[in-house]
Every structure is written in C-alpha cells, then in structure tokens.
C-alpha cells in the first residue's frame, strides 16, 4: 500500500491545504452557471446591505432638527428606501442560498460516489491491508467537510470580503483616512492573531482525528468479528481497546477546545480596541463639526456590519481548517494509485474456445517471499484441471492471478492466446465464474444474491441454477422463499447453504471459464457428491480450474497438478498419480484413512443439511 494513506501514523500539520482546496474545484465547475448566479445574488445582497446604513444616515440627518425647527413632512421616500434595502438584503441572500444548495449537495453526492468507485478500482493488496471502519469514517467525514467548506465559502467568507471591500471604499472616499486605517489595522491584527493561534492548535485536531478513526475502526472490527469475540469471552478486552483509544482522542479534543478560550479572548480584545478607537475619532469629529450625527450613525453601523461577522469569521476559519484537515485523509485516499489498471486503448477479451494457459508464471506478494515459481500448464477448452497441495502452496493464488487481482512477476497468463494484461479487466472477469472457498453474501435477499451474477436473468433461469446447485428445495421451505434476507455476510445461513448460493450464482453467470476454489468444503460427503454431479453437468463445455483440498472431489479431472512451495512437482490423471506413488498418492492415502475414522454421516450434526428445515426459517450457522 502506498505510504500516502496511512492509519497508524499521526497526520502532520504541514499539509497542503491549497491542494486539498483545489480538489473541490471540479465539483463547482459542473454547476458553474448556477455558481455564477449565486455570486451575483451575493453581490446584490451586499449592495443592499451596505445601502441600509447610507439610507439610515440620510434619515438621521433629515430628522436632526435644530432647536425650534419643525419637520415639514415625513421623509416617505427615505423610509421606503430603507425598507426596500432591508428587504433586498433578505431576498438576494435567500436567492443565493437556493441557487447554491444544489451545488453543495450534488458535490457531496459526487465525491461519495467518486470515492466509492476509486475504492473499487484499488488493488486487492490495498483491500487486504485496509481498515474498513477507518475508511468509512474518513469517507463520511470527508464528504461532510466538502459540504462545510462550500458552505463557509459561499455563506460566510465571500460575503464578508465583499462587504469589507464596499465599506472600505465608502469610508475611504467620504471620510478621514484615519477610519480606514484603524479598521484595516484591526482586521489585519485579528486575522494574523487568528491564523497564528489556529496553526498552533491544529496539531491537536489532527491527532484527535487519527484516534477517532482508529477507535471507530476497532469498534467496527469487533462487531464484524462478533462470533470470535464471543468464542473467547473477549468482550471486556474489546471495550478496553476502544476505550484506550477514545481516552487519547478525549485528551487531544480537550486540549484543542481549551485553546479556543485564548483565541476567543484575543479576538475580542482586538475588536474592542478597534471599535473604541473608531468611535473615539468619530465622536471627536462630530463635536468639532467635521461630521454630522448621521455620519456618526453611519460609521457605527458600518462597524457593526463589519466586526460582528468578523467575530464569526474567526469561527469560520477554525471550521475551514478543521474541514480541510478532515478532508486530508480522503484526498490522500483519492491519490492512492490502483496497482492494476487497464492499458490505454485495451480491447475487450474475446473468448471463443476458452483455453487457459499459465506460461512459466512467477509471482510473489513480497519480493523476498516467492509464492509461485515457473508454473506452466494449459487447460484445453472444455476440460477440467485440478490443483492440489498443502496450505500455503499457492493454490488460491492461481485464481487471483487469473482474475488479475495481481499481475504476474514473470511469465504470462493467456486466454485463447490473449495476454490478460492486454485486455480490459471488466471483460476478463465477465468471462470467468468462481465459487470461492469463503462465500460472503450481501445482507439482501437470496434472490438478490443469486441475480448478482447476472441481473438481467429471468426468474426461471435463476430457479434452474438453484436446482442445479441443490438449493431450490431449501429455499422453497422458507416462509419468504427467494425473498428471504440472508443477514450480514450471509450469517443466517450455514456454511453449506452459503456455498450452494455461490455455486448457483456461478452457474447463473454462464461464464466460459469456471473456477472452483474449495467449492464444496462446507458440505458433507453425500451432499457434496450430489452437487459434484450437478456441477459436472453444469460445467460441461466449460474450461474448469478446480482448487481442492479433498482429493475425492477432483478424481474426475482431466489433469491434476500437485503444488509444493509454489512449484508443480507432479502432474497427471488421478489414476496415473496414484500409480506413481508420490506426494499425491501419500495425500490420498492419508485422506482415505481420515475418512474411515469419521463417524457415520448424520450422527453428529451435518453442516450441509439446510438449517432452515424443521422450523421454516433460516438459523445462524453453528
């Protein structure tokens, strides 16, 4: 896995916020017209907002009568203008919100989908090393951060900047430059102080995020391994692991929160000094006749309009930094490069005969630990080749390489003479069906899981595949039939029932090439034999690679390979290998001896018997 995306090291405060910010631009560009209209509405709202103090000044000057003077008429025009300016501010502000809302939520939707698509394109190596809980938290936090950043930009930062520019222009044009200088210096001091303190305390936030993701991951992992936790009575241990991490998260969050007090006090002090200085000079100008009472009210109103949102701007800056920090892990995740990618202009795989050839294949997950060495074999079209060997010999790696979850280190893999590295991954995987050793199902109905192989298949085709897999009768015994929900990861079904679903799914896919990776490991011998006979009928005309531990399941193979430490040490038919008296014959003799020592079938429970039979509902696997 790339060093960019990590769960175990503390994030650094020296992040490239500008790069993270640039990652937002594509999501704005899609709705650039709507964004432009929102910005125009923002400008109109601020023009109306700045107009309110100007009209108020005119009203105060009009009503500021000298002693003995009488007001000749009510200033209806000014009063209406005041009301219209207030109404215009609200109207254009709400219009801006309406225009930008779709941009914000569409951006969240697109980012979530893009990240999910990216995760699916990353290599199996990444997903074997991933921490699901941490990724889920980073995705959730990153999408929310994108929304927050866009929200702060549109509704907080840009309005303050526009209003600041308008007010400073008016003050500079109509009043003593001292007012502009005091306000500018106050704002500069406020911003500099805020940046300095926020950058100092940001490390606490980064560290808190790391511990929060780790705690979330540990909690999710303990629930995903619920049965294992129960087996070993480790509930308290799991709680303590999560609590230890949450304790570190708590310490850093408290430090981060406590530092806000210093920040808030410093910001308030700067604003107080700036406001006092401006009001002092304004009052002096009024006393000396250089400014009218209306001018005094105008300057005071401008101060309120600037400094009140400026107080919130400190909070907005904090939240923006937090949002950029929260988004940092997601940006790094999106920068993670897929290990396996289609070559530019790669054609689709054309499968006519279905011949599979491993040509002097070498492979290693890590360079220092080779898994396969000079593996060379051919599966002719419509034939069945079986691979056997002890655990760790590299049997299942053959299936992963054929699906191109990894690329070979040496040699090549050909299907009908086409190097699988030269064709699209989608077309390659569409041509291959697999019954894996560990069947994990979606927490959906049996029908959903079956039709996952070929969503366009008819109900009749699905039922036919279920019958071939000896699954149909069990499903029909359930109250909800094919609509029965199997539970998370299929935990409401026994191991044998899950494998039947996997077998039916592979049959329904109708691939040219089939892989059986310990396909009947969860079945008893009787059920296994019934399914093997069905699979023989279903796989007729298909090129089949069978990876097996039970040698009794592959005696019908056209050729059997024996793997030892990643090398093919024997090959031949079942009979030929027995006659050779080598490794295969020894394995066969051992398994026959073990089988003879087992109790009669059914005497001690049978994982292959559908657990739903008897009470009409699926039960948890034993």
Proportion of helical residues = 55-70%
Radius of gyration: 36 Å
The major β-sheet equals: 6 strands, mixed
Distance between the termini: 36 Å
Q: If you consult CATH, what is the topology of one domain?
A: ABC transporter transmembrane region fold
- Structural class by helix and strand composition: alpha/beta
Widest beta sheet: strand line-up: 6-7-8-3-9-10
Chain-averaged pLDDT:
80
CATH-assigned homologous superfamily of one domain = ABC transporter type 1, transmembrane domain
Low-confidence stretches: 7-14, 602-622
CATH class of one domain: Mainly Alpha
Residue share in β-strands: 5-15%
Discrete helix count: 19
H and E string: HHHHHHHHHHEEEHEEHEHHHHEHEEEHH
For the record, the CATH architecture of one domain stands as: Up-down Bundle
Task: List its traits.
ABC transporter transmembrane region fold; 6-stranded mixed sheet; alpha/beta; 10 strands; 4-stranded antiparallel sheet; 10% strand; 622 residues; 60% helix; elongated
